[in-house]
Amino acid sequence: MILVNGVETGMLDALDRGLAYGDGIFRTLLLRDGRAVAWARQYAKIVADCGRLDLPVPALAALEADLACIAADTRDCVVKIIVTRGSGVRGYAVAADLIESRTIAISSPMPIYPRDHVEHGIVARVCDLRLARQPALAGIKHLNRLENVLARREWNDTQIAEGILLDAANKVIGGTMSNLFMVRGNTLLTPDLSACGICGVTRERILAAGSRLDLKTEIGEFELKDLYSADAVMLCNSVIGVWQIRTLANRHWQPHSYVRMIRTLLEQDFD
Amino acid sequence: MILVNGVETGMLDALDRGLAYGDGIFRTLLLRDGRAVAWARQYAKIVADCGRLDLPVPALAALEADLACIAADTRDCVVKIIVTRGSGVRGYAVAADLIESRTIAISSPMPIYPRDHVEHGIVARVCDLRLARQPALAGIKHLNRLENVLARREWNDTQIAEGILLDAANKVIGGTMSNLFMVRGNTLLTPDLSACGICGVTRERILAAGSRLDLKTEIGEFELKDLYSADAVMLCNSVIGVWQIRTLANRHWQPHSYVRMIRTLLEQDFD
């Protein structure tokens, strides 16, 4: 099901600035038994990201109506919400009278990942592409995602579930579609995303879960050597949940109890 | 008029990867008396940019059919050609069986700029935003243009016709919608675009025009001080042609004969 400004349709105005310039943001979330997981955090991120790009914020009621409409169709699915600056005339400048953004809500089936990803962890690789450092866009889940597309095109091997991205300064940022955490002793560490990367809702939830589990949390700058020396490395997003890395280059890890605990907490709809 | 894969329609599949990720490229060109200006160079850039992103290249005949269709409607207009990786399922990975891209051709009226822009030059400003350095995307006219959108939002003063963009290393790159040239003695200088910026067709044409006019041409790294000390600074793209900068901060320039000569050559359809 696809809703554009609340109306069911598969089509979008070809002059939408989301297409022209990637002028918009998006979120991906789960509907579980008709309820949007971590919805308060998801909406807060929509508000924050719209604020960063000076996009009119879609009304909570309008988005909740979209979710209800989708839930009436399918109780369990993935929902992607896109917010764009609507249609525009040619040129980067925005009409001064723009007061509403456009929302596109798209449901798709719950993906089926191998059980093994959760039970034993995944095989990951380090991508060649280096993310550009752009503080003006860092953290935002905006529609300019060519770096992710190019990074994802670096491998075809279906045994490799995710690629790790470093930035131009060789700092670890995350996966092509996920945020990254390391476990070191009783500390959860995750990269600082003030120069690039996306601040995901599951990353926020894991930071909160860490406190709940009496783990220390640390946001900082990390390099590949920190990854290799960690007790565990996990990748997360709203759809996959948490996957621990089993193999990265020549390094192998066993399932770690903290990863299991965090996963359990997230699945219990801890928010 | 809007043509999607050659069919007149204003609507686009909401699952297009151009919207989802900015996964595509575009060109903007003039139709003058029904003929696409510098079309051979424009198509060559489409081929080159598609190659950089590993996008299937649209057939020359298909794009020329679009141009003919638009020309039958309006002899003089601006045409924007967008090429996207078509529709996709959720996720950055591209279906292995993708063999065709999607093309969107959009005509819009010829914009009317003040005569003054050509006769006496424009007022420009230096943008605060710094372009991120990303060699993997540099030069390509791709659909990830949030930096340009944000830079263009820095000013509302209608007296200011364009903003100058520097990169994270404070090198001059160009305008928000234009390439930049300096005149120093009998040399035309333009920024190297291997780390960021867009290599426009008019930039190529001016480099060719420079040789024709027995001017030396130099592609290099320049800072703001080089701009201020230049004999003339001009901005160019396929729609505006060539605008000399009259005022930038406290620096003022008189119209320069080389700028006039280059403009004349471009208007004579020199290619």
UniProtKB/TrEMBL annotation, chains A, B:
Pathway(s) annotated for this protein in UniProt: Cofactor biosynthesis; tetrahydrofolate biosynthesis; 4-aminobenzoate from chorismate: step 2/2
InterPro entries assigned: Aminodeoxychorismate_lyase_IV, Aminotrans_IV, Aminotransferase-like, BCAT-like_C, BCAT-like_N, Class-IV_PLP-Dep_Aminotrnsfr
GO molecular function: 4-amino-4-deoxychorismate lyase activity; pyridoxal phosphate binding
Keyword Lyase on entry: yes
Keywords: Folate biosynthesis, Lyase, Pyridoxal phosphate
Subunit structure: Homodimer.
UniProt keyword DNA repair, yes or no: no
GO biological process: 4-aminobenzoate biosynthetic process; folic acid biosynthetic process
Gene3D superfamilies in alphabetical order: 3.30.470.10, D-amino Acid Aminotransferase, subunit A, domain 2
Family per similarity comment: Belongs to the class-IV pyridoxal-phosphate-dependent aminotransferase family.
EC number: 4.1.3.38
Entry-linked SUPFAM superfamilies: D-aminoacid aminotransferase-like PLP-dependent enzymes (SSF56752)
Protein name: aminodeoxychorismate lyase
Reactions catalysed, as given in the entry: 4-amino-4-deoxychorismate = 4-aminobenzoate + pyruvate + H(+)
Species whose genome carries this gene: Sulfuriferula multivorans
GO cellular component terms given for this protein: cytosol
PANTHER family from the UniProt entry: AMINO-ACID AMINOTRANSFERASE (PTHR42743), AMINODEOXYCHORISMATE LYASE (PTHR42743:SF2)
Cofactor(s) in the UniProt record: pyridoxal 5'-phosphate
